[in-house]
User: Fold these one by one.
Assistant:
Number 1:
Amino acid sequence: MTDFEVGDLFVCEDYVLESFDFGEVKQKAYCLKSSVTDFDLTGQIVWPAAIALGKYIVDNKELFAGKNIVELGAGAGVTGLVAAHYAKKVLLTDYMDVVLQLLKKNEEYVQMDNVFVDKISWGENCIKNIDTENKFGKKFNNDDKVDIVMGADVIFWPESLDGLLETLDEALEINPDCLVLISFYSRVKHTNTSLFEKMEKKSLKRETIFNDGDQYIWKITKQ
Ligand SMILES: C[S@@+](CC[C@H](N)C(=O)[O-])C[C@H]1O[C@@H](n2cnc3c(N)ncnc32)[C@H](O)[C@@H]1O
């Protein structure tokens, strides 16, 4: 009898090179057209929220110029790669090893020297670790504060809300001027209710800076 990992049966890594048109930025990246949610491989595909945030970045490129950016739950990394056309440094992060391999593949493909990839699981002082310990992304250092923290379609499972909000809170605590952007696609009402309650408890305020139907981009601040 052969030993095998059951998870392997569900993991497809037959990535295709897709082209995404953001106007002045045409970004190519490897991704899948569909994936499984069972092991949270949602990051293998590029979600509409990533496209919406990519467009926002190009339309508001002056906000991103010369900045140090951390993308949370980057998935294939398309949004962060768009930002890298303007930013000083972009750290693309995710917590799933399969997704991190995809991020690495895209990092290697784009050959941009300001793009880095590392593992970040939300919560647990994950932003502090970048800033003070030089732990993630070898070219971030103590003089380089994080100017922008952003995430596209990172709000979907109620159980991950606490860690995510802790991380957004942490980013604003370290640097009150940090621009925190969340590209949010509204799907499940009870997740939204829980999100809004948790944000209020943490005194996190959201300002809608883009809206099209169920797609929002929020700027998050601390009251
Ligand atoms: C729906 S996908 C969005 C991917 C990409 N941002 C996009 O919009 O195309 C959510 C991403 O968040 C990542 N993620 C979920 N929970 C996480 C956690 N606790 N820490 C870090 N990343 C997480 C997943 O691995 C996945 O890549």
Note: The CA atoms of residues 158 and 219 lie 20 Å apart.
Number 2:
Amino acid sequence: MNRQGKTRLFTMLLCVCFITGFFLTTAFIIEHSDHDCIGHGCPVCVQIHLAENLLKQLSIVISCVAFASACLFALFNTFLPVIQNIFLVTPVTQKIRMNN
Ligand SMILES: [Zn+2]
């Protein structure tokens, strides 16, 4: 497996772990939302708060990734063709004969 294949595999595994963690955390919160709370220092409540913080952090990461993806999409689909037209307009690319 070449380097690009390893990178794709690693990226896919990271995405699967990310999505699995998101859904398992949500399932944990839903499953234990109506537990028999013992009050201050309840271990289930502590785990629920940790899970909520994890979901908040994941939502921030998702927002950042969505914004970065939108910026890259705009860059490659809007600005890059314009830049290529500016810098790649030469007599050779225009197929202009320059005979003396
Ligand atoms: Zn509790």
Note: The pocket of zinc ion is lined by residues 35, 37, 42, 44-45 (CB under 6 Å).
Number 3:
Amino acid sequence: MTNYDAVVGTDRGAVRAVAVLTGAGISTDSGIPDFRGPQGIWTRNPAAEKLSTYQNYVSDPELRRRSWQNRLAHPAWTARPNAAHLALAGLAAGGAEIWVITQNIDGLHQKAGSPPDRVLELHGTMHRVVCVSCGDATAMADALARVRAGEDDPACAACGGILKSATVMFGQPLDRDVLGRAMDAAEACDLFLAVGSTLTVEPAASLCGLAVDHGARLVIVNRDPTPYDVLADATIREPIGEAIPALVAALLARSPVPASQSWHDGDRPPAGPHQSHGQ
Ligand SMILES: [Zn+2]
């Protein structure tokens, strides 16, 4: 049984800033398949990976029609955040600065209550669509409504260009601003948690090394070993839905940010773990 209090680092005093990197493994409990795991879509059907390649998408209208049908049927539209998403959302209430850096496109961290401006979506979001020609970004729900109404490959309303989900496909670079903010968070944190990521996709995985280089404690929670386990202060193989709430509880149980650093006269003190919400 894991001693979570030791995992979060009793020897290093209060944790002031936490960066969490999440991958597909955190969303499988919410019914969203892990694309690279043993039961993953790509593992079972390599042709599915072709659907996620940018060059194929923009050059092949038939592939786009299939993509829109796949989007209509995606489990994320009805998925609910699970215990791990909810625990991470609760961490912000403990007074520590927290950044959630995610490789997921499902929006479940925000749905769980993590502040949207604290969630860095490295691979974009499936809740928006973007035009590949003019960059116009609109709601996915509106595009899906057009597909349901009979348009099998809806075009950009502004310029007639090809619409795609606002996600980073194979063959597309990451958003430099989002990646830059993720690197800043990795450099500034005391504790870097990698959760449910195989840590095989760069540059996301290298954020672990960046955090360690800048003095952070690295804790990896993943079912299988990762290439970064050698750098980790702790590796946890227990189910994510159990490990993350326990880790967060251990973090909230210790004294949060020293009052002189973040709180001023007249401000409320940071909420403790046992403070009730509402009246
Ligand atoms: Zn356009």
Note: The domain at 4-32+81-123+175-256 is CATH 3.40.50.1220 (Rossmann fold).
Number 4:
Amino acid sequence: MKRSYAHIVRWFSISLDSLCSWPALVIFVTKWAKVAHFSHDTTFGPDRRLCFLIVCRQRPEVLVRRPESHDNRGSVTTLTAYRTENLMTHYRLALLGFGNVGRNLVRLLGEKRAELEASFGLTFTITGIASRRLGWLVNTEGFDLDTALADPRTAAAGNADDLESWLTAAQPDVLFENSSMNPHTGQPALDTCRSALSRGIHVVTANKGPVVHGYHELRQLAAEHGVRFLFEAAVMGGAPIFSLFREALPACNLKRFRGILNSTTNLILTEMENGLSYAAAVKKAQDLGIAETDPSFDVDGWDAAVKVAAIATVLMDVPVKPADVKPVGITGLSQEQIQAARAAGRPYKLVCQAAKDDAGRVSVSVTPQQLEPNDPLSNVNGSDSLAIFETDTLYRLQLSEGGADAYTTAYGPLADLIAISKH
Ligand SMILES: NC(=O)c1ccc[n+]([C@@H]2O[C@H](COP(=O)([O-])OP(=O)(O)OC[C@H]3O[C@@H](n4cnc5c(N)ncnc54)[C@H](OP(=O)(O)O)[C@@H]3O)[C@@H](O)[C@H]2O)c1
């Protein structure tokens, strides 16, 4: 990451002339900055006098102390109209997997570029793009985003031979791993995450495979190398499940959850209730960009099983593998059954569940169920999803997402990038 000074957002405040001398202030600031996770630096203020910059590592805000040169005393001055320096962080980004999610992420990064810079002090260049068909493309000067969206090969400056030489050439600070999911082994994405984290590269993935097959190992590896392993989009796309528990629900323990977590099967069931054939409904999910690369992973329940395993592993802290879920998909349901159930007001839904007992054992399932009309899950239609959490401190907490598509999923990795920039 390259840090550069751009402009100061705020200068603080009240004159402290009378409180301490400049040398005492230097000692105080140095110690306090260390304890309070601030960094400090010196720079020149608008009148060219030396200032003390105190920079919060999480946010690009600064406190400035300005010594009075004539009496060697410190002062703090509010200079609201003055724009000078602020800490910015530049990230080199690499994308492995350039399908629905990868491409929408590039689009979103382009749309949010100015906002990322102004609100989070975050600038970026994309230095690597890779997929099976594209190969290992590199441009250390940064891919032009529009050209990359049209055809990344025309925006590339060179090609690497494999993952390792690609990471060496592109030198990313953050790797976005958005390749196809393998529910049974998590490979090859799992090895990709290992390689990147071992090199001190943050990893952000929408791919549930590495999460369920390597969460504890990858989290440990990330910690050892001082980087993050984040995967907000892995479950419910851009909706903040993992950061909700991580950031907003401290000391809140998940006991049980029920949900509709697979948008593709929910869309297929809704469309089949409305008369569309199974094949046409699958095609509609594919056109929306929400189906797995291999849609049998959706309809056979494996995508939902991996999501249940991810929630149990990460939020209940009990390692669960997709095979433990023994999922039942929706392919056993005929169109007549689906339509009759809806007509009777008790529609079929692919219900995901996990519960942790007092001994710490977790039971998990993914299965089609006919739901009562007053069940909140029975009203979740199309590509919408809903998760209902029961915790030890909040008895029923619901998170729902409407109209999910690959663009909303791409918000997850973007939010993860911002989370990385704040730490
Ligand atoms: N789409 C969604 O709404 C959504 C929601 C949540 C999570 N996810 C997850 O996000 C990931 C990507 O989904 P997607 O919809 O973008 O899939 P996609 O459109 O099928 O794209 C997959 C991409 O991964 C590449 N890829 C696959 N295997 C690879 C390998 N071994 N090495 C290098 N590249 C490889 C493909 O390359 P080629 O095309 O060159 O073969 C393609 O660029 C999946 O893990 C999925 O489970 C997706």
Note: The two ends are 13 Å apart (CA to CA).
